[in-house]
């Protein structure tokens, strides 16, 4: 790597993190999410802009390690990153086994090597891996921005009650808003990357 490239990367202290944009979350997958197609279309806009601007991109891919897992099973098509957001040469893929993308992975080391301070986070699920990853990143000292309409989740059950995906998503975005992250839309974010 040339000195000019290293200096250029050091100046760009932002990284786009795409979490679990994998086939099992799409229609026909083992764990279909509400609004996943729309969220990934927005994530693709962010990804295209990051590529144009030279902003580093890291793809997070969850591979199930838990016995009896029904989605993201190793070696299945469902565990693969969806073609809409698939990585290209030069983009890192971090494989994780837990909701927190930092736990047991090389993510922190990759970010430190690139001198990243600001993270733009999107993907799935809002109430699980987006939440866990954002809170962990905040605790590690990163400035986090979550792109709300580039995230998706699903209906949840609690004490015999169905909590609709839109309410789950809104609750988790509201909870992350202070102090963990700035919550924005794709339209607000796409020209800032």
From TrEMBL:
Residues covered by the Isochorismatase-like domain: 14-160
Record bears the keyword Transmembrane: no
Single GO MF annotation: hydrolase activity
Database matches in InterPro entries: Isochorismatase-like_dom, Isochorismatase-like_hydrls, Isochorismatase-like_sf
Transmembrane segment boundaries: none
Keywords: Hydrolase
Keyword Hydrolase among record annotations: yes
Name of the protein in its database record: Nicotinamidase-related cysteine hydrolase
Organism (species): Citrifermentans bemidjiense (strain ATCC BAA-1014 / DSM 16622 / JCM 12645 / Bem)
């Amino acid at each position: 790597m040339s000195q000019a490239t290293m200096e250029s990367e050091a100046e760009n202290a932002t990284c786009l993190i795409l979490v679990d944009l994998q086939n099992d979350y799409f229609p026909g997958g083992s764990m279909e999410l509400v609004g996943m197609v729309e969220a990934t279309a927005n994530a693709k806009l962010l990804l295209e802009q990051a590529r144009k601007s030279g902003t580093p991109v890291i793809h997070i891919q969850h591979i199930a390690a838990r016995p009896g897992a029904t989605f993201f099973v190793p070696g299945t098509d469902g565990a693969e990153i969806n073609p809409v957001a698939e990585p290209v040469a030069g983009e890192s893929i971090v494989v994780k086994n837990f909701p927190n993308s930092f736990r047991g992975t090389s993510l922190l080391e990759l970010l430190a090597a690139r001198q990243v301070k600001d993270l733009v986070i999107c993907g799935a699920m809002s109430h699980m891996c987006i939440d866990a990853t954002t809170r962990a990143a905040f605790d590690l000292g990163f400035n986090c921005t979550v792109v709300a309409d580039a995230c998706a989740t699903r209906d949840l059950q609690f004490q015999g009650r169905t909590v609709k995906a839109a309410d789950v998503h809104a609750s988790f975005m509201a909870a992350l808003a202070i102090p963990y992250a700035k919550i924005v839309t794709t339209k607000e974010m796409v020209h800032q990357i």
